[in-house]
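Sorry, explain these tokens?

___
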Amino acid sequence: MSYKIIHQIYKDFILCNKNKFSSIKLKNYKIQKCQNIIYYIKIVTNIKNLIIFCHYPFKKIKLPNKLGYIKKSKEGIINIPAPDKKDLINIRFQFQGNIKIYKNKKSCKIKKIWKKFKIPNIYRNDIPLLFYNETFISAIGLFVVLNKKTINKKNFWKISWKNYI
């Protein structure tokens, strides 16, 4: 590592404002500061616009960027309303807008929910999000969204996310 890179790391990560976003690329990795924590991250393909379509009932779905896999199992942390047979199940990695999750009194921006769950900005697009058709159902392993598709369901299932890390 050159003196120039070390100096930039010192200037951008040690001396800078704790709320300032900083990032430096080093070959296949990047050093990134988020919420006053410094991360050393492998650079991977951007998957925020990726949609993975699934057939019900699915057994195991491999996720991109070595994020592991998800599968229907009894080991899942939360009960997720089961889809209707006509629903198109899909996994996405990005959502923007307001949602209301179970046990919350009001809806809020998903950005606030990520903060509540202490998910750093740099990992938010790595979390598999379950959709039925175009309706956001769940951030797998974290929460279930309260909406027309989930409110009065009688059948539930569990999905577990096994990460390779």
User: Anything to note?
Assistant: The first strand starts at residue 22 and ends at 26. The helical segments are 3-14, 110-116. The chain has a mean pLDDT of 86. Residues 116 and 153 are 26 Å apart (CA to CA).
